[in-house]
Design brief:
The chain has helices at 49-56, 98-108, 113-126, 142-154, 172-189, 200-206, 224-229, 234-239, and strands at 6-15, 25-33, 37-42, 64-68, 71-72, 83-87, 160-164, 193-197, 209-214, 217-222, 244-254, 257-262, 267-272, 281-286, 292-296, 307-316, 320-327, 332-338, 351-355, 361-365. The chain has 366 residues and is of the alpha+beta class. The protein has 2 domains: 6-229, Rossmann fold; 244-365, Nucleic acid-binding proteins (OB fold (Dihydrolipoamide Acetyltransferase, E2P), Beta Barrel). A 6-stranded mixed sheet has the order 6-7-8-3-9-10, with helices on both faces. A hairpin with a 3-residue loop joins strand 16 and strand 17 (320-327). It is elongated and about 80 Å long. The two termini are 39 Å apart.
Length: 366
């Protein structure tokens, strides 16, 4: 049985190949709570297809277990799973009207005419689609098609809605509008969503929690702050946290703090990830916004235990500045600063000292 508050629990063996080819399999465990939007951030568009197909009932869920509200639904056909799918791989019926597209799944479920009409009217109004009801699906714009596909799922009142890259092909404004609609529906209807995307910003906006899926490997599931501040591995730190990656060796470890001799020269303190060993090689991951910079005159002596760099590039990215430094011991590192910081004193070739608090960097075994 599922734990209280758990809507979906799955423990599956997923194909290691994104195309679902027969071969090595990898365990995938995932829990989704009632009323939650879980954003699944995938490294590639096709990475989510085996999981989505297993949930929707388009491929066998075995070997493994797929529980919805404590009931094993792995052997149920797609139409009886109470899981709705919004996906370009499950398109609208282009030769039918919008109204007929919404009527079709209810007729297949043999829902009464009165209840069917009520659900359709309510859903069309909820998504602002009343004016599109008589139009053929083939005539709809991309953003309208997504909303109609969502409406087709909503009229069936599923326990879980799976959205597979729903904003693909939409403009920036259309993406924002769709995300607002979905967040409003989650709040108003208490919907439970699994939202698959390849866009980090979209995962941050949509997800109450975020799962990081690379191929068939689910690296970590957690809130944004958990993924940023306590990454499970180097891949999470670099991919999701956009962290700098510096190599080194572990001098000693004490109270979960590792003293690391960087290949770039100095020794720095970092949080020690599980599996890190004294004397072993490691990779230090530190996010650009966690790096403190102190610009100094070229004549100042840095000393051996200082991470020294030279400003190589300044990029203004709207809400922040990205500073790229060449390290004195070799390699590069990125830092971020608020866009409000004056640019007058910043110019290429300025010397700087770079540092971070131990808690803001993590050393992973290499």
């Amino acid at each position: 049985m599922s734990a209280p508050g758990h809507l979906l629990e799955l423990h599956l063996q997923m194909p290691a190949a994104a195309d679902g080819a027969v071969g090595a399999e990898r365990p995938l465990d995932l829990v989704l709570h009632e009323g939650e939007c879980l954003a699944l951030l995938a490294s590639g568009v096709r990475d989510v297809e085996p999981l989505v197909d297993a949930l929707a009932g388009y491929r066998p869920a075995s070997p493994g277990q797929l529980l919805l509200r404590g009931r094993d639904i792995g052997d149920l056909p797609a139409g009886r799973r109470q899981i709705g799918l919004v996906s370009a791989r499950d398109p609208l019926f282009d030769h039918l009207s919008v109204l007929a597209n919404l009527t079709f799944p209810l007729a297949a479920r043999k829902l009464g005419r009165t209840e069917s009409d009520h659900r359709i009217r309510q859903t069309l109004a909820l998504l602002g689609l009343e004016g599109l009801a008589p139009r053929r699906a083939a005539s709809l714009a991309a953003a309208e098609r997504v909303r109609v596909a969502l409406a087709r799922v909503l009229v069936c009142e599923p326990a879980l809605i799976v959205l597979e890259h729903p904003t693909s092909g939409l403009t920036l404004t259309e993406r924002r509008d769709l995300r607002q609609i979905l967040r409003r529906l989650v709040r108003a209807r208490g919907l439970s969503l699994l939202f698959a995307t390849t866009e980090r910003e979209e995962a941050l906006v949509m997800g109450d929690r975020i799962g990081l899926l690379e191929g068939s490997r689910l690296h970590q599931v957690g809130t944004a702050s958990e993924l940023l501040d306590r990454p499970a591995n180097e891949a999470v730190a670099v991919w999701f946290g956009e962290a700098n990656r510096l190599t080194g060796s572990v001098a000693w470890i004490e109270d979960d703090v590792a003293h690391v001799r960087l290949s770039a020269g100095p020794s720095m303190d970092c949080a020690a990830a599980p599996g890190l060993e004294e004397g072993g090689l490691c990779v230090v991951c530190v996010r650009p916004e966690r790096i403190a910079t102190a610009f100094v005159s070229d004549e100042e002596s840095f000393g051996e235990e200082r991470l020294a760099g030279t400003l190589a590039e300044i990029l203004h990215l709207g809400d922040h500045l990205r500073l790229r430094f060449r390290l004195a011991g070799g390699g590069e590192i990125l830092a971020r600063r608020p866009a409000a910081q004056p640019l007058g004193s910043l110019h290429a070739d300025r010397s700087a000292l770079l540092a971070w608090q131990a808690v803001h960097a993590t050393a992973f075994p290499q």
